[in-house]
Amino acid sequence: MTHKAGFVNIIGNPNVGKSTLMNALVGEKLSIITPKAQTTRHRILGIVNHDEYQIVFSDTPGVIKPAYELQASMMDFVKSAIEDADVLIYMVEVGETVLKNEDFFKKIINSKIPVILLLNKIDKSTKEEVDEKIKYWRDKVPNSFVYVISALERFNVDSVFYKIIELLPEAPPFYPKDQLTDKPERFFVNEKIREKILTHYKKEIPYAVEVETESFIEEENLIRIRSVIMVERDTQKGILIGHKGSAIKRVGAEARKDLQKFFQKKVYIELYVKVNKNWRSDKNQLKRFGYNN
């Protein structure tokens, strides 16, 4: 019996629904999801195992033109996703026409590997508009297999999944068959806390935040977590904490609830806020947080 395996990398503009698709394909909520752009900062792998295949899905940051060092590091993740893919998924919305970074778009058009172009959020469009966009993208990216989907509603996601299996090369598995992702537990703690900050805070606060879990102690029936939320200015620290700590308590309570579901254990979490000036533009700090490897 032959075995198939490969890297299936998902790219697209911010807010196109890449993380929603990734979670739907993997069957687990690995990537955090919020309405804000640039929610995904890292490249996150989700592994689907079967006796006959192993699919290594990769969710990447949205494609943008970098404005500072953190965003440049995020685009390095996208670049690597294009370079090492066995199957490339390029996601667009009905109203889109091009990627925000033309260099990446040219690489997609000239790709030598299979490209699946997904037209997402069709539930918000008319049939005429969808038909028009299918024709547009088939002409624009003639080397692609075009599918219309709603990642949120899981419409047509199974058809895409079966097409991926068809396109996978024959290969042994890259990871142990019981492995779900390449990220450690602390990564998901950091991301879950950051998801709550993205949800509840406005303007610059979510983008000036980085989370670092200093302690993750797993006991038989309990996980004890200590995490530090870093901001760039004292004013941001005050906003994040809120009046008498009310705002940061809400973040902790909501993150704890989700983490208990994710780890299937009770969770005790302590959150602290520290000022780490200009960390987004500091290459040494970015390397420490896993952006410049």
Structure report:
36% of the residues lie in helices and 24% in strands. The chain has 9 helices and 9 strands. By secondary structure, the chain is of the alpha/beta class. The protein folds into 2 domains: 4-167, P-loop containing nucleotide triphosphate hydrolases (Rossmann fold, 3-Layer(aba) Sandwich); 185-288, K homology (KH) domain (GMP Synthetase, Chain A, domain 3), CATH 3.30.300.20.
End-to-end Cα distance, whole Å, is 38 Å
- Specify the number of helices: 9
Largest sheet strand order: 2-3-1-4-5-6
Low-pLDDT runs of 5+ residues are none
Q: In total, how many beta strands?
A: 9
CATH classification class of the largest domain: Alpha Beta
Strand proportion, as a percent range, falls in 15-25%
Query: What CATH architecture label of the largest domain applies?
Result: 3-Layer(aba) Sandwich
Helix content: 25-40%
CATH topology of the largest domain: Rossmann fold
- Overall pLDDT metric: 84
Radius of gyration: 20 Å
Bulk shape:
globular
| The named CATH superfamily of the largest domain | P-loop containing nucleotide triphosphate hydrolases
Total count of domains: 2
Largest sheet: 6 strands, mixed
Structural class: alpha/beta
How do the helices and strands line up, and which of them pair or pack?
Elements: E1 4-12, H1 18-26, E2 44-49, E3 53-59, H2 69-83, E4 87-93, H3 102-109, E5 115-120, H4 127-140, E6 144-148, H5 157-167, H6 185-200, E7 210-218, E8 222-231, H7 234-241, H8 246-263, E9 266-275, H9 283-288
Parallel strand pairs: 1-3, 1-4, 4-5, 5-6, 8-9
Antiparallel strand pairs: 2-3, 7-8
Helix pairs in contact: 6-8
